[in-house]
Amino acid sequence: MKVRLMEQSDLNDTAEVHKLAFVRQKQSYEWLVCNFNAFPRVLCFVAEDSNGIIGYIIWTQKSGFRPEVVMEIEQLAVSPNHQRKGIGRSLIMNSLPLVKAKLAENDSVLKHVFVTTRADNFAQELYKSALGAEVEATITNLYSADEILMIARNVS
């Protein structure tokens, strides 16, 4: 499996992963195009194997272009038939150095990473183990259920 910066030619296959992973959301292709077109504020990476795109991660730079950057993991998705195989962790761990390299091109460093996820989402354990993220707050009834805000501090 390889993690790399998303290319425009990946959008259709990545939209299919989005559609399968986020069944309550719609317009998968349009959602991903908007994020892809927001480069360099938004950095999109894909995980691919010999059969094609199996997951993706979207990192979003928050609150302007700064010397010390707070990045949000806006979205992380793995195709359902590839879940629980370490692909989400690989997406985080293999894209993180690429994010840091992109920030360095603008003389910036990564300060913190934050992520929101459903309170009942098993992925919060992934964010804790991979990044050291801790739950900072619970936001009740935000999207489809309660959301938790997690922050990994001083990631640089």
From TrEMBL:
Matches recorded under InterPro entries: Acyl_CoA_acyltransferase, GNAT_dom
GO MF terms, alphabetically ordered: acyltransferase activity, transferring groups other than amino-acyl groups
Residues annotated as domain N-acetyltransferase: 1-155
Pfam family, one: Acetyltransf_1
Keyword Transferase (UniProt): yes
Keyword field: Transferase
TM spans (from-to): none
Name used for this protein in its record: N-acetyltransferase
